[in-house]
Amino acid sequence: MAINIDTLPYDCVSKILSYTSPIDACSFSMVSSTLYSAANSDSLWRTFLPSDYDDILSRTVNPSILQSCSSYKHLFYSLCQRPLLLDGGRISFKLDKCSGKKSYILPARELSITWSNDPMYWSWRPTPESRFSEVAELRTVSWLEIKGKIRTKILTPNTSYVVYLITKVSHRVYGLDSAPAEVSISIANKVQNGKAYLYNKYEDTLFYENQWKIEGKNLMIEDNNENGIQVPSKRDDGWMEIELGEFFCSEVDEEVEMSVMEVGYRLKGGLVVEGIEVRPK
């Protein structure tokens, strides 16, 4: 026997919708007035927030940006659209708008960067494009090594995550595209290794294609992704990201280690590091 959902108790409808996703709830809200009320209720959107959201909000650097949130739905989308700086700016937090799962960015200062405290090799400076107070810029080095760590207990359990190095390059970039870096993700006894170029001089492919067409030449650009070598890709925030690997976050608290290493004898410089992001796949 078919049951009209409009005849079900309001709490029952909200409970059913809680087993869907935020994006599904928004779609259901357009079906009927009953679903509209349930799909916009505080009781539903509270379930889409992380169970530890109170603790997360208590650690924010600027709590005033959340004072205008008039409902849990408003709070949810604020956390999706505006990353929060937590713990004095030592980490950035954000929610995925489709799933409500947590993502974090570790700033460059929270990473282990070989020789980063030696001004001969690295410089630290603020930049208005960054969400953090400073970024690390590589001056010149032959041994490039960047490492980061994060505990899975702060992530969303039973979720696949992907790790990205967030970078830019300065006008004086050199040596970063001569050889791919070794990248790895380690969790428990599992290690995932790969390779990635830290700079792609043909990142603006359309510009080069148009320029070479004007000159009557053909441009051949190798797709290194097909060879298993990652290349930088553009982000919505204006930075570039390089995939380091992925891992599965279970319900057991474990430490995840991320690593980027390019230790050839060739000198390189001009890499600007903002941090490492861990976000749902």
Describe the structure.
With 281 residues, this protein is an alpha+beta fold. 20% of the residues lie in helices and 34% in strands. It has seven helices and 15 strands. The protein has helices at 10-17, 22-28, 33-39, 42-48, 53-58, 72-81, 205-214; strands at 84-86, 91-95, 102-107, 112-113, 122-125, 135-138, 144-151, 159-174, 181-187, 190-196, 229-230, 233-234, 240-249, 255-262, 269-280. Strands 1, 2, 3, 5, 6, 8, 12, 13 and 15 form a nine-stranded antiparallel sheet that branches. Strands 4-7-14-9-10-11 form a six-stranded mixed sheet, with no helix packed on it. It is elongated.
Can you give me a brief rundown of this structure?
With about 280 residues, the chain is of the alpha+beta class. It has helices spanning about 10-15, 20-30, 35-40, 40-50, 55-60, 70-80, 205-215; strands at about 85, 90-95, 100-105, 110-115, 120-125, 135-140, 145-150, 160-175, 180-185, 190-195, 230, 235, 240-250, 255-260, 270-280. Strands 1, 2, 3, 5, 6, 8, 12, 13 and 15 form a 9-stranded antiparallel sheet that branches. Strands 4-7-14-9-10-11 form a 6-stranded mixed sheet, with no helix packed on it.
